[in-house]
């Protein structure tokens, strides 16, 4: 594991009170284990001269041992096809980006589905032996990635369904009750084939018999991806929150159309503002949004929208994964979709730190400056800003997240937000307010890096300043407040593309609480 990546795993564990799951591509691919853009490998499977399987756990163990040391959990993506098992092994790996017409052997179906089943059984059995059945039972096992897309799968849909059947049979042979699922398709919606692919896969699981066992097809969770679409309009970035929300709405509607499957857990195994983490801003200028406060502000608005869609469609959404980690030894702030750059945390990571400070139950939180969900679904956030809120509470604290989001990344006035937090317990004679902020000047190493002259070889002193600037920052000193009949009122100046978190703590009790906020420009 690369040193910055290992450190980031520990940070992700430390920012959340609940388990953090990590999903990685290319866990089963052939090679020397060195990562490059859109390719890596474990070399777990080869064959001898007689065509007999040979298993090597060295690289895979290093990966999963690193997860274990950081106390994060794998969401195991079973892919991609080992060279010796590929039905079209040559050329096995060419390099990103591919030229039109080029394909790589790791993206093809297996030449022998029984060997594929045995590979997945061996992987699961090895993990059980190494980490224990109780631990591995908390993992999720997802079969492949984006089989309906043009890059990751060169088989038919029928071949993917067969791949799925044999994979889940192998995993559950080693660990009965293992959580298996898929199909990890691209975003459902009117474009492409993702909606029909997802629907057909669910029909396969609901109605067909397993190609591997002849019995019922296991499906413990449903996964698909949702993506926005940034573009450059008049020399500035325009985000596409509407597209990501429409992907989710269409996917939830498809799941809802299967009564037997409608209550299964849904995991959005990629939920992001766009689709290519490995596409840098140098080549794709709209992707520069990833370096600054627009990315976390977009993510706040998207998270609220997903909760609203979950409630609307009555689906069992249990997780949303961002397809963003870090690329080792790339230029500083190159504009990849990452959480950190060369060990310097980017503003978006501070959004997840904020979210990790929200625990307990989600409670009612309303804003007069919020755009209705249907407006966002129809046209995004383009005519006026979305000034909205999300709140949680437990027995000893409340957390209120506020944001001032707009798809158009252009200078604009901020907003004065009047916040009312009501229902504080009678025993809370004094409450402690901590106000965290992400904006252009807070929790933002990118601004500091640019002010330094954008160094690609920062001095030790500069690097220390960048690392400090990458941490979640309080806007002001913590403040003790006396509630008035269980209510506190605050006035917050919220710049455009800024996110605030108001965290209020008091002596432990078990009353219920109600939180409201109102916003006006």
Widest sheet: strand ordering? 1-4-5-6-7-10-11
Annotation field: number of helices: 12
**Strand percent estimate:** 15-25%
How many domain regions?
A: 2
Q: Specify the helix fraction band.
A: 25-40%
CATH class of the largest domain: Alpha Beta
Give the overall shape: globular
| Rounded mean pLDDT score | 95
What structural class results from the helix and strand content?
alpha/beta
Major sheet summary line? 7 strands, parallel
- CATH arch. level architecture of the largest domain: Alpha-Beta Barrel
Segments where pLDDT lies below 50 for 5+ residues? 510-521
CATH level-3 fold name of the largest domain: TIM Barrel
| Quaternary class | single chain
Spatial separation of the terminal alpha carbons: 48 Å
Say how many strands there are.
Answer: 23
Radius of gyration: 24 Å
**What do we call the CATH homologous superfamily of the largest domain?**
Glycosidases
Textual characterization of the structure:
One of its GO terms (biological process) is carbohydrate metabolic process. Helix 7 (241-256) packs across helix 10. The strands form 6 sheets. Strands 1-4-5-6-7-10-11 form a 7-stranded parallel beta sheet, covered by helices on one side. It folds into 2 domains: 19-325, Glycosidases (TIM Barrel), CATH 3.20.20; 361-520, Glycosyl hydrolase domain, family 39 (Immunoglobulin-like, Sandwich), CATH 2.60.40.1500. With 521 residues, it is α/β, with parallel strands linked by helices. Helices cover 29% and strands 23% of the residues. The chain has helices at residues 3-14, 58-70, 113-131, 133-136, 157-174, 194-207, 241-256, 294-313, 347-356, 373-379, 445-451, 460-469; strands at residues 21-22, 45-47, 53-55, 73-78, 140-143, 179-185, 221-227, 231-233, 236-238, 265-272, 316-320, 340-341, 344-345, 361-363, 386-393, 397-405, 415-422, 431-438, 473-474, 479-481, 488-494, 498-505, 514-520.
